[in-house]
Amino acid sequence: MPTLEAIIGLEVHAQMNTKTKMFCGCDNDAFGKEPNTTVCEICMGHPGTLPVPNKESIIKAVKMSLALKCTVNKNSHFDRKHYFYPDLPSGFQISQYDFPLASKGKVHYDVAGKEMVCGITRLHMENDAGKLTHRGSVTLCDYNRAGTPLMEIVTEPDLRSADEAVAFAEELRRMLIAVNASEADMFKGMMRFDASISLREKGTTKLNPRSEIKNLNSFKALERALQYEEARLRKSWDETGGPLKRDITVGWLDDDGKTRMLREKETADDYRYFPEPDIPPLLIDEKMLLQIQPEPVVLPRERKKHYLAMGLNDAEAATLIDQPEMRALFDAVYAKTDDAKRTSSLILTQLMGFLNAHGKTAADAPSVNAMLDLVIAIDDGTISGNAGKTVLEKMVTTGKSPKDIIAAEGMGQISDDSKIEAFVKEAIAKNPKAIEDYKSGKQAALGAIVGYVMKQSKGQANPGKVNEILLKHL
Questions:
Q1: Which residues contact 12 (CB under 8 A, 6 or more apart)?
Q2: Alpha-carbon 416 to chain mean position
Q3: 205 exposure class (CB count in 10 Å sphere: 0-12, 13-18, 19+)
Q4: Is the pLDDT of residue 268 over 60?
Q5: Rounded distance, CA 110 to CA 177, Å?
Q6: Element (H or E) spanning 408, and its range?
Q7: CATH architecture assigned to 417-473
């Protein structure tokens, strides 16, 4: 039996996070809205209406193209892609075909610590369709999403396993968020995949007919669907002695954990592409590119290398890459302290721990200024490090500033020598056994005396001064 390998390519659809739709002025935020309330004559495809391209969506698509190391084509144009879907009111989609916005890029990503590269064939723009809801024999159409700006990113067939496909898709999502081209919220359907897979004998270069899996809306679905379809194609190869006879399109049944045949895959001829007559060509020169993105964007993998060089581990670096709110807090505190270990403890351990414990998200975290005020309060001796943890938790639960919490709770650190000396004298008087043990050489006994002082001062005594004054007395 020949040794077979999987050949995988992805088409990634990402909704762009503009205020308005691709070709009209309707609200682009359809999630959670009443059905068919963010629509107009243009996105509903009424006769006599004219589409006008959304400038912001073009800018976002260009920025993502540059992040993908693509060549942004100086001349591109929109095309009509003809097919009928009930949720595509016009009966055709405005997309790009022969002359896409950008082509020939690449993405570096990691799988099990190994760096991989996947080529990008093209990035083109189009408008999204609406959403269908099936209830028994009835199908309901919500056109709120119709006209949403989409970028479609098409890869080369460079992926060889479901693991590679998922790792690539995860890195691509980070890039979309980093350049602010899309929120890529998969729960809201802002990022979806069509995955194509075929088999061939290892060592050969021929691309055999493929199976395209439509509309995968999560990384887990992408992984499971590719694993299932690869196993199915291998079984088919064993039974027929070769690859598929033609390209096919299948759908993924998430509840059943399997694919089902939909149709033979369409070709460009089936879609009857022709240049969109209502939209002139897009002309993007070097001057415009510099205006759109004067400086290169720092991409997620570069940020990760930066954090690893600080001494953070992979998990900590990944958290900062995937959660921009935490990254902003970390960067600000690190700039203040120049101490990566301390900053990681404060942001990634203490703060995230309190957020999780109280059912909150990164969006509920204190502001940068509030976190810096907390650091200052600890550094200038206003409160102790331990008291800082208490203040931080109250910042999370109440939303108040550290200054207000410290004042309201009377948590200010006691650094006055005379007050601490009084606590120390009381501790010595009340703990004769500990004093005797310490003088006989038991260093640990000192901790009991310090602990007594901290208890009597309600944790507010400056630990450094407590030790200094205690040792002087002993």
A1: 152, 153, 154, 155, 169, 172, 191, 192, 193
A2: 48
A3: exposed
A4: no
A5: 18
A6: helix 402-409
A7: Orthogonal Bundle (1.10)
